[in-house]
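Write out the bound-state structure for adenosine monophosphate.
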Amino acid sequence: MDNCLFCKIANGEIESEIVYNDGKLIAFKDVNPQAPTHLLIIPKKHFATLMDIEESDRELMGSVCTVAKILAEKNDLEASGFRLVLNCGSGAGQSVFHVHFHLLGGRPMKWPPG
Ligand code: AMP
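---
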């Protein structure tokens, strides 16, 4: 997708600190971390929001949970806990319109989120 920041990160046009890449999903460090661990997990395939995925994307999107578990283990977050967040739409705080999951950990979390 032209002019999509996260597509450019996924194809290497824009640099980022990539911490995971399996060909279909990548994860990289958030530039403005909101917790000691703040990673973004994205499908390389472009979807502007979660509402753009289709039934055929079930396996791809489901695999995000497995990658979140792998990255939580790598960052020693199993015991302390962590949060996996997806903002869908500007009303929910989405600012980059390429589906991404925030993996946040390393500090206490409050509920409900703001
Ligand atoms: P959201 O508000 O849910 O759309 O989240 C977008 C996230 O992308 C924010 O946490 C930003 O800090 C992060 N972000 C924006 N630009 C970059 C970038 N170039 N590299 C890494 N993270 C970014």
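---
Residues 5, 16, 28, 30-32, 40, 87, 93-96 surround adenosine monophosphate (CB under 6 Å).
The beta strands are 18-21, 25-29, 37-43, 82-85, 101-105.
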